Amino acid sequence: MATILISGSGIAGPTLAYWLVRHGNDVTVVERSGALRSSGSPIDVRGPAVEVAERMGVFDQIKAAGTKVTDLVMVNERGRRVGRVNTFAMRRSDDARDVELPRGDLADILFTSVRHDAEFIFNDAIVGLRQHADGVDVTFDRAEPRTYDLVIGADGLHSAVRRLAFGPESRHVRHTGVYVATMPLHEPLDNDHDVVMFNTPGRCVTLHPGRGKALVAFMYRAPAVPDFNYRDTAQHKRMLTEAFKDEDWRVPDLLDKLPDEDELYFDSVSQVVLPTWSTGRVAVLGDAASCVSLFGDGSTLAMAGAYTLAMALHDGGDAFAAYEAKHRQLVEPKQRNVGRAADLLIPASRVGIASRNAAARLWPIAAAASRLRARLKQ
Ligand SMILES: Cc1cc2nc3c(=O)[nH]c(=O)nc-3n(C[C@H](O)[C@H](O)[C@H](O)COP(=O)(O)OP(=O)(O)OC[C@H]3O[C@@H](n4cnc5c(N)ncnc54)[C@H](O)[C@@H]3O)c2cc1C
Fold it and tell me: How many CA atoms lie less than 13 Å away from 366 in the CB half-sphere?
C-alpha cells in the first residue's frame, strides 16, 4: 500500500483516486476550491472515457446527466439560420456512445464515487514539495505538513504541482491564439436541442441550452496579451468588451450583463507541452500534463489518463514511464488537431465562415462514410 496525494478534484483527480483506492492505496485529494467548481461548461465523455466510466459503474449516471443537444444552428447578425448540423446524427453514424454533460455534473459524479474512500481536503493547496529517498515532504497553505510516497498533480491548466516540480508555467503553457469566456445566460433558450452559433471573422458566440441552465460562450482570435492574468476578472471583462464591441446579433445585450456577472470564466485557450510527465515521485495528469485546449477532448483524456496511470502503478515496475508511453499515444494526435478545430469554430475570414457553413451540411454524411469505410476494412 502506498500513500498518495492528488492535487485537484476536477475530472482526472477523482477518477485516479477511485482506482488507487480500489488497488488498496491510502489516498488524499487536496482541492483548492471550497467545494467542487460548479462550471456548467458542457464537456464530453467519449470512447476510452466511456469504458472507464462503465468499469467504475457510473456510466448510467453520466448518461442521465447528459444534455439533450442534437443540433448546431448557425445564425447571421439578424438571427436568421444560415446553417444547421445534426450533431446527434453524426454521433450516431459514428456508432458512438458519447455523452455531453455539464462539467460540474461530471466532476460531482466522479467525486461521489470515491468521496467516502479517500480523504478530501477542500479549500487548501500544496505550496511546497521536497523529494527525498523515503518520500515527498509536502507543505500546504493551511493543513499541517505531511509526507507521501507519491504526489500527482491533477490540478488543471494552471497546475501548482507542475510549477513546483517542473518550473514556471511560461515554460510549458502555449497560447493557441484564441481566448474563451463563458457565463450563464440567466434565461432559458427556445429549446433544449439547439446550440446556436454566431460568427464574424475571428469571433464566435454560442448559446448552449445546457441542462436547465443555458450558457453563453465567447471565443475570439488574438495574440497572447503580455500582462494577461487568468485570475483578474476586471481585466477579463475589459478584454471581452473590447473584442466584441462592434458585433451585432444579441452581443450588445450580452455585453450589457457583463459588469454585474460574477460567474464569468475567461482564459487563454492553451496547450500544455511537457517533455516528461514525471520527476522522481511526482507526476502530472490531465490538463496539468497535457492540456489539449478546449477543442480536443480534454475531459475524455483526463479520465483515460487517470485510468492508465492507476493501472501502471498497480502493475509495478517503472509505472510513470509506462503511463506516459501509453497515454501520449492518445494525447499527441489530439494536440495536433487543435488548429483544424479552431478553423471550423472560429473561421478567420468571411469566406472561411461561408465555406464552413456550406461544408457543414456534409459533415454527417462524411462521418457516416468514414464509419462505413472503417467497417469495410475490418
Ligand atoms: C470553456 C471550456 C470548454 C470546454 N469544453 C470541452 C468539451 O467540450 N469537451 C471536452 O472534452 N473538454 C472540454 N474542455 C476541457 C475540459 O474541461 C478539461 O480538459 C478537463 O476538465 C480536464 O480535467 P482535469 O481534471 O485535468 O482538470 P480540471 O477539470 O481543470 O480540474 C482541476 C481541478 O484542480 C483544482 N485546482 C487548481 N489549482 C489547484 C491547486 N493549486 N491546488 C489544488 N487544487 C487545484 C481546480 O479547482 C479543479 O477542481 C473545456 C474547457 C473549457 C475551459
Answer: 7
Of 21-30, 56-65, 182-191, 241-250, which gets the smallest average pLDDT? 182-191
| Ligand 1 pocket, residues with Cβ under 6 angstroms | 7-13, 30-33, 37, 41-44, 103, 125, 154-156, 160, 180, 182, 286-288, 294, 297-300, 302
Residue bearing cell 454524411: 365
Q: How far is CA 175 from the centre of its chain?
A: 15
CA atoms within 13 A on the CB side of 304: 21
Supply the pLDDT for residue 84: 86
**pLDDT tens by residue, 277-331:** 999 999 999 999 999 888 879 999 999 999 999 999 999 999 999 999 999 999 9
Q: What number of other Cβ atoms are within 10 A of residue 326's Cβ? A: 15
* Burial class (CB within 10 angstroms; exposed 0-12, middle 13-18, buried 19+) of 377: exposed
Range list of H helices, the chain = 12-22, 47-56, 59-64, 87-93, 103-112, 160-166, 233-244, 251-256, 287-290, 298-315, 319-336, 338-345, 350-360, 363-377
- Rounded to whole angstroms, what are the CA distances from 105 to 25, 40, 108, 196? 26, 8, 5, 22
